[in-house]
Amino acid sequence: MLGRVRIAVMFLLLLVLAVLPIQPGSAASGDAVTVISISGEIDSGQAALVKRGLQEAKSHDAKAVIIQINTLGGRVDSAISIRDQLLACPIPTIAFVKSRAWSAGALIALSCRHIVMSPGSSIGAAEPIPATEKNIAALKAEFSSTAVKTGHNPRIAEAMVDKTSGYPDYAETGQILALTDVQAKETAVSEGTAGELDDVLHLFSLDGAALTSEQTTWKDMTIALLQNQYVKMILVGLIIAAVMAEIKMAGIGVGAVTAILLGAVLMIPGDDTLEDSLKIGGAFVGGLVLIGMELAVPGIGIFGVAGVLLLFGSLFYMLGADTQAMIILAGGIVISILLFALVIRRLPKSRLFSKVALTARSTGDKGYISHKDKSEYLHCMGRTITILRPAGTIRIGKERVDAVSNGGFIDRDVEVRVVQIDGSRIVVEPVDKT
After folding, report:
1. Last residue of a domain, which of 324, 356, 388?
2. Is 274 in the same domain as 252?
3. Largest Cα–Cα separation, the chain
4. Which of 83, 80, 77, 68 is nearest to 38 (CA)?
5. pLDDT of 16
6. SS3 content of the chain, % helix, strand, coil (to 5)
7. Looking at residue 371, what is its pLDDT?
8. In terms of domains, do 170 and 73 share one?
9. Parts of the chain with a pLDDT under 50
10. Distance between CA atoms of 139 and 176, rounded to whole angstroms?
11. How far apart are CA 127 and CA 107, in angstroms?
12. Quick one: which of 178, 223, 338, 382 is 20 to 30 A from 203 by CA?
């Protein structure tokens, strides 16, 4: 059993290390230009790619960063993340629209200080789906403010999102603005037309610059997978189910270790600072510790409540602390309940449980002698003094004795019946009043 746990722990640690960002190494500075290729659907993997590419560009002291774009759009939150990274980049940025920069791709292009388009390419068509008044207003503001910061025409940016804006000679009121490469040049959105990267370099007097290419890797795809809301929901469900299993198995440690490792995987794609990540991770582990203390010191209650609050609070912040985080948490709770319902009856009888639980009996016929014969309590009635979860204290007559429940929790001051004596172990069940 321990060997399998070690293998599982090592596998998860390798996964964590594999997707952690690698610090860029040193490279020759001077005439370097970093090219970041964004293609396909915009997602968190593309955001991770841009982050890594900009780090490389800074480490190489690049003269410029070219964002090569060919996308029909994608996740708005990922596009906004890319936008923020590009706006904060101190190196000149050039968007090279290779084919299409629609929807979220248009926002990324507008986030660059310069835009160049290849023949036959297009940009715009960024109406959000669903096109509610709230979504349109929010995205319109993002496009407009981005255009202002990078020196592009904010009216054109707004018309790409809101069809009620229109733009004279290019989009009538009621039509979403989308521009061809020729139209983009006419409206000064684009600074020129270029067929290949060499042509882009020539437009900005960067001829002969050494190109460093950054493309999507399996690490970026792993991060994109971990950022998927359904994958997050499953991870949250597994974490909660692991904690519930830990409680069910009276704190043997496997559930807590599993929850910690899954929590680390859940935090991998986060954009939080190191300080914030340490705070959230500390709260998460602290919640598990408090729950463990509640199992070790039954009857107090405050540790358990504080632990649950810390656990769910840290999960909420891991997921982004927004409405989507609440939806993912709710879905994870449902998944954990379904998982736990499937295994709760099998858990004590499973091969795994039998390997980690003490099942051998020290009976009299094997030469063992109990400290005290408690068979006199069999079938006696008593009342709980502390909560049995599953262990606690009951009163039988005038005597206080330790006991365990026959499955599940039993609250304080509940009448119970002794149903089994196993050496010095007294097993009780609540008395049915019906």
Report:
1. 356
2. yes
3. 99
4. 68
5. 46
6. 50, 20, 35
7. 54
8. yes
9. 1-5, 7-9, 11, 13-14, 16-29, 349-358, 368, 370
10. 14
11. 11
12. 178
Find the helix or strand (DSSP H, E) in which 159 lies. Answer: helix 154-161
Nearest to 384, CA basis, from 400, 376, 395, 375: 395
CATH code of 90's domain: 3.90.226.10
Domain end among 322, 356, 390: 356
Q: The domain containing residue 319 runs over which residues? A: 228-356
How many Å apart are CA 314 and CA 414, to the nearest integer? 35
Q: Give per-residue pLDDT as tens, 214-238.
A: 777 777 777 777 777 788 889 888 8
**Tally of residues, the chain:** 434
- Nearest Cα residue to 207 out of 196, 216, 193, 219: 196
Q: Which tens digits make up the pLDDT trace of 19-61?
A: 444 333 333 445 789 999 998 888 888 888 899 899 989 988 8
Predicted TM-score of the model (pTM): 0.59
Residues 194, 83, single domain; the answer is yes
Rounded-to-integer distance, Cα 322 and Cα 347, Å: 35
Cα 311 to Cα 23, 255, 272, 335: the distances in Å are: 31, 14, 18, 17
SS (H, E, C) 321-359: CCHHHHHHHHHHHHHHHHHHHHHCCCHHHCHHHHHHCCC
pLDDT of residue 252: 57
Query: Which helix H or strand E contains 296, and what residues bound it?
Result: helix 274-296
Residue-wise DSSP of 191-216: S-B-SSHHHHHHHTT-TTPEEEEE--
CA dihedral 53, 55, 59, 62 (to 10 degrees): 50
Listed residue (74, 179, 69, 184) closest to 125, CA to CA: 179
Please give the structure tokens belonging to residue 180: 């061809």
Whole-number Å distance between alpha carbons of 96 and 434: 76
Same domain for 202 and 186? yes
pLDDT at residue number 261? 87
The span from the CA of 161 to the CA of 135, in Å, is: 10
| Residues 240 and 347 occupy one common structural domain | yes
Strand partners of residue 33:
64, 211
What phi, psi does 188 have (nearest 5°)? Answer: 65, 15
Q: How many domains does the chain have?
A: 3
Query: Cβ distance 63 to 35 under 8 Å?
Result: no
Please give the Cα distance from 278 to 263 (Å, whole number): 12
